[in-house]
Amino acid sequence: AFEGLAERLQGTIQRIKGKGKVSEADVKEMMREVRFALIEADVNLKVVKEFVKKVSERAVGADVMKSLTPGQQVIKIVKDELTELMGGDQSPIQFANKPPTVIMMVGLQGAGKTTTTGKLANILRKKYNRNPLLVAADIYRPAAIQQLQTIGKQLSFPVFSLGTDVSPVEIVRQALEKAKEDHNDVVIIDTAGRLHIDEALMQELKDIRALKEPDEVFLVVDSMTGQDAVNVAQNFNETVGITGVILTKLDGDTRGGAALSIRSVAQKPIKFVGMGEKMDALEAFHPERMASRILGMGDMLSLIEKAQENVDEEKAKELEEKFRTQSFTFDDFIDQLNQVKKMGPLEDIIKMLPGAGKIKGLENAKVDEKQMGRMEAIIYAMTPQEKTTPSIINSSRKKRISKGSGTSIQDVNRLLKQFEDMKKMMKQMTNMQQGQKGKKKMK
Ligand code: GDP
Ligand code: MG
Predict the structure, then answer these.
(1) Is the pLDDT of residue 44 over 60?
(2) Contact at 8 Å (CB) between 59 and 77?
(3) Does residue 378 have a pLDDT over 60?
(4) Least distant ligand from the CA of 145
(5) In b/e form, how buried is each residue of 50-89, taking b as 16+ CB within 10 angstroms?
(6) What is the pLDDT of residue 9?
(7) Which value, in Å, is the radius of gyration of the alpha carbons in the chain?
(8) Digit-coded pLDDT (tens) for 124-149
(9) Which sites bind GTP (predicted)?
(10) Distance of CA 419 from the midpoint of ligand 2 (Å)
């Protein structure tokens, strides 16, 4: 998401960054561009106006003008305000003091409620060590019940269903009893959606709410519907009442308008974002990190978290040690390739690196997974000595390796260069990681 916005804002930022002095005219000019960028990203007009006003007021303030790095100062203000716009701090899940915690999923048809029910259950188990029961309360489409059952089976979660003949309220009532019996500490209710908001749907949701006040009512909305998503959020909040928003399909949303407007219009925080169809593609929403990403400052924290989730701890420690002692070899490189593969599509990972937005063409570049296969083949064609001491690979060895792996000499050269680059990058990353840790402690 946010590709267009990111590109525009980063362009503006580059221009203002190094300025020794920032005049009021500079700020005005920058704000014009920010305004345009936000409108183009499909951000709600009222939100754009307020945002630009706030940033302008702060940016022409005495503090900025007197500061030694006024350009940087303005960028910081934009980042702060973007963060604020998206809700400020990350908004955690509210758990009941006395289990079970009841989470209700509401939203229009096709928004992603059923899918997200599974993803959320996954997070609850993995990160919070909970044991959720999924409840099939969408009785209008038999396929909906089946869909939830399939997800439950796939992830090994119990699914409570009474078919399509019992009312949703009764289903939820019995599900709550069942959860008590089976010691499920979280109950996630997958409700029915409609194509449009209608009175009957709202009443049904209110009836379920009345049975037992849920700890969370998550509105699931499709970010690709842009300002419609924002209107739906406002409407649901006013009629049914919601506690938070889960924004799905952010992976396919290039503009980001809903993500930027919802908090301010509907007055409810985005708690999670859906980043794909797979069951592990749900992430906690961190406004500050998202703002950094939009401004091309990268998102090292998310990247490190992602790595920590997927990478074997022991292996990671071993690798870190190897980087430090410079004893990293091609065998480790293969290990590393495999770890990276587990983290998901390479282009997603690269996007989180600071400055990635500035690398020309990267936003469209599909990192070639085939090339990873080629790399592996080349490494397997090396002798053990070549793997540990790549500096001995002269041109006759290169020839042999390229022949043995069915690749070209250029491929071999490229890999050797990549190996060196990777060593360098990893060194930077370990440094940065230590920097981030230090910052966190200071807070
Ligand atoms: P519901 O009608 O609200 O229950 O919606 P579903 O859970 O059935 O989802 C509708 C479609 O959206 C399915 O094909 C999902 O795979 C897809 N979907 C849900 N969340 C995401 C997401 O974050 N990214 C992508 N790309 N697809 C999603
Ligand atoms: Mg559904």
Answers:
(1) yes
(2) yes
(3) yes
(4) 2
(5) ebbeebbebbbeeebeeeeebbbbbbbbbbbbbbbbbbee
(6) 79
(7) 25
(8) 999 999 999 999 999 988 899 999 99
(9) 107-114, 190-194, 248-251
(10) 46
Query: Would you call 410 exposed, middle or buried from its count of C-beta atoms within 10 A (0-12, 13-18, 19+)?
Result: exposed
pTM above 0.80, yes or no: no
Ligand 1, pocket-test mutation among 277, 279, 283, 348, most atoms within 8 A of CB: 277
Distance 279 CA to ligand 1 centre (A): 11
State residue 245's pLDDT score: 97
pLDDT digits (tens, 9 = 90+) for 250-291: 988 888 899 999 999 999 999 999 999 999 999 999 998 888
Task: Give me the phi and psi of 430, to 5 degrees please.
Answer: -65, -40
Q: Which residues are annotated as a binding site for GTP?
A: 107-114, 190-194, 248-251
Q: What average pLDDT does the segment 238-246 reach?
A: 95
State which amino acid sits at residue 245: V
SS (H, E, C) 74-92: HHHHHHHHHHHHCCCCCCC
Among 248, 254, 282, say which to mutate for ligand 1: greatest number of ligand atoms within 8 Å of CB: 248
Sign of the CA dihedral with 325 first, then 331, 334, and 339 last? negative
pLDDT at 423 over 80: no
| Helix pair 3-17, 70-85: axis angle to 10 deg | 160
The pLDDT tens digits for 180-200 are: 999 999 999 999 988 777 888
Protein residues with CB under 6 Å of any ligand 1 atom: 107, 109-115, 193, 220, 248-249, 251-252, 274-277, 281
Distance 324 CA to ligand 1 centre (A): 43
